[in-house]
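Q: Here's a chain of 698 amino acids. Please give me its 3D structure as tokens.
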Amino acid sequence: MTTLPTTITAGCPNALGARYDGEGVNFAIFSEHASRVSLCLFDETGRTELANIDLPERTHHVWHGRIDGLQPGQHYGYRISGPYHPDQGHRFNPNKLLVDPYARRISRQPRWHDALMGYEVGAARADLSFDTRDSAPYAPRSIVVAPATDWGDDAPPATPMSETVIYEAHVKGLTCRHPRLHAPGTFRALASEPMLDHLRRLGITAIELLPVQAFLNDRFLVEKGLTNYWGYQTLAFFAPDPRYMETGDIAEFQRTVARLHSVGIEVLLDVVYNHTCEGNEMGPTLSFRGIDNASYYRLADDRRYYVNDTGCGNTLNTGHPMVLRMVMDSLRYWVETMHVDGFRFDLAATLGRGPGGFDPNAAIFQAMRQDPVLARVKLIAEPWDIGPGGYQLGAFPPPFSEWNDRFRDGVRRFWRRDPGRVPDLAARLMGSAPQFDHSGRPATSSVNLLTAHDGFTLMDVVSYNDKHNEANGEDNRDGHSANYSDNMGVEGPSTDPAVTAARAQRRRNMMATLFLSQGVPMILAGDEIGHTQHGNNNAYCQDNATAWVDWQGADDAFLAFTAKCIAFRKAHPILRQKLFLHSRERALDGIEDLFWRRADGAPMCRADWEDPELRLLVVELRTASGTPPYAALEYAIVAVFNAGEAVEVTVPDAPEGQVWSLHLDSSRPDLAPEPVEGSFQMPAEAVAVLVLEEEQPV
């Protein structure tokens, strides 16, 4: 039998978690209402519990102790005693082995069994009952890790937000069907050369990963033969999920980040600090609930129950100083130790909730805004939740950017030819100023998207009128019904050349619109090669070919067009400005920075804006009024968005020595630039872009 050092001394309360210092390990854990905290040490396999040692010291509700001789790789957990009074908010049960909230690594997923519950499943008193079974055979272990790896010359790309192009991806879904990757489905596959080649060819600057912090497979999914694919059920906020690691070593994640950095790609993490995987009062006791339920969670007036603004059963209590500290420590850890470049906050409206509802000056936002570590990374909010007053688009304080679902819906509806959509498209093209142009916020506050993990893929937007989520086992009741999609006359796959051509054109139109808009563009992994989920718009439990990107069926022509759009955006600073455009005169030349025109070249009038049958919008953009002289400048761009029939479009007069050149026409994806004088024939249902350039000598 393995012999472990078990002599414990006072240790230190300052650094929470299990900290190895080269000679031993210091353990520290917060619990305000506990009466006893026991550290459980396991053998190297994690199967056999070898020691159960009470932490000897309690300093300001932090329990702590230090054991000399323990090494990295040590498996451990906690058993915590205290009152079991669910009606008062307390659910301590020392029979349950608990994951350290600060664990840097965990051994595996929980194995579902009734012993994971703090109460007796099926008892008449339900969660008010008390379960005495040991959960250790089924619970994951926390694992001590060594200090950070040697990063060598790794440096963050530090791409300005105005130059950022985000690629939202799932680690496994992006890599597991690729034919040429080592260890598909893992972090290492993400950093392999064929994947880096694809990302470089595409031209994105940041990859935003769906949750990689260790998460739970929900019991109701496991019992249906499904799994939690997306990962929005966090168990450990500091630990990479073991399913994405080939060897279990967290250095695999660190090396992946370094490889992506080496080709100029930032790594953003989708993080879930609004709730945990423990669910409502009938959920398992895996960590926070058994450590200090009344501190970690927001409880209802009847303290037996949880506030559920997230729809996931509970809400993390970020108003408590030690819970807020945990979130902040976690964010700093992923930046300083794992070198990530930013975060997208799931259901971020929940983080700002207090007794009076959403507060943009909530403690957690204030803490993030003043933090010197977070000041150098990107912060992006998903600005809604399901609670009252939960939709908060545009309400977050700087420096947050926000996912903009109005951009998604507005662009889809314009190209679907819904009546009266031109004014809304104009707002979306200009960075959604009605939502974001306040409080000194830049146009980069809007993260523009056509699709995301939650909803149809771009191919499905043009292939399905209705969702088809039967495989989720919920009788197609789950997922959004308002998708603003258009199947072009056939529901699902089609071999009709006219239908497939129309779908390809619509996809090019929408992708071009995305990259011609002010704000920060984000595309969903797989959209660039035509991936379909066969009409499933809520693939959260589809860890299979439904959600995995189909590389064998890649649409290379659309990949090339998408890369062309990204390259065009990068080449033209007018399309990625920080200042909003409001048709203001420029000190530089007295010319306004924005013009809206009709097809005949005349300015748009009120009657035009109010015409529900108008399907065409012409916009002339210049460098924004107020742009400093040292910023990148160019002359002008005219973009035409035509959801109607073919029409003759008049272009503005070019100044002497300059010429308008047609650079992009979505109906001719392989177009080389060609000069335009006076007017040009604008194709039906297409996007065209002209650039004002210096006339070249003959």
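Q: Can you summarize the key feature?
A: The two ends are 87 Å apart (CA to CA).
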